Amino acid sequence: MQFKLYEDVHAFYKETYPVLMLHEAQNLIPLGNIIIGHEGTDLSDWRDPANWLMATVSDAKGILLTAIMTPPHNITLYATGNRIHPEAVDCLIEGLQEYDIPGVLTERSLAEYFAKAYTSRHGLTCSTTMNQRIYELTAVNPDIPMVGTFRLLDEKDMHFFPYWVEAFYAAASYGKTEMKIPQDAAHYLHRIAAKKLYVLEVNGVPVSMAGYTRVMQTAIGVAFVYTPPYERNKGYATSIVAQLSQLALNKGFTKCVLYTDLANPTSNSIYQKIGYTAVCDSLQLKFES
Fold it and tell me: pTM for this structure?
């Protein structure tokens, strides 16, 4: 087994991109990250590859295990072909012994195997922060009602958009009961300027939002799905995700990919109704002393 640590994101991209593409939808996060790093057009927040941890474990036949961590986020792993090689995991853990790994996010069986081996070696405990399912869509259910007016968010939406973003993050975080009150407009204006976020209006009133995240070769990520509590149970989230997904397919993407929280049966039901099918389950685990 050979452990290899990378300092050059372009070299890491060249060697791991075709491996990760074996399961494009499952690898939405690591693929999206290495594309961001390779293009180098956005170095804000965690996106500067100079701060990343990038590694592979290989044998004579090629890469067996790929790892990338973009601090402060957890390490993300992919076992090539979804075949877990215990010796490759041990080799990776040995190679990472000088690094502080806060947790892991990956396909369920690999996450559980890595977490057990890593915490045992370092005398840590492990807890689940998110139990997720990855879905992909290749065609939108034509029976979904396309209600309201679907449009890009723009600067005139700043009177509500920052609050919806923070409410979305608060709702998605276990144990979090309060949302942050926005103070600085720059972060939200940056998101709007990226032209990846959309809003659904009914009678001129914004009722739901959704947007794109990582853009890949044939797939695109869907996220930031949020409807304020007073507008729920009216079909708005279903409609905006369906319209957003159809727009992506119209642009030439062959599939849309999204993550869901398995603790939220409503969202999982909505996405399946639209046409999303399960790819695999994913676990986000936190390591603690």
Answer: 0.91
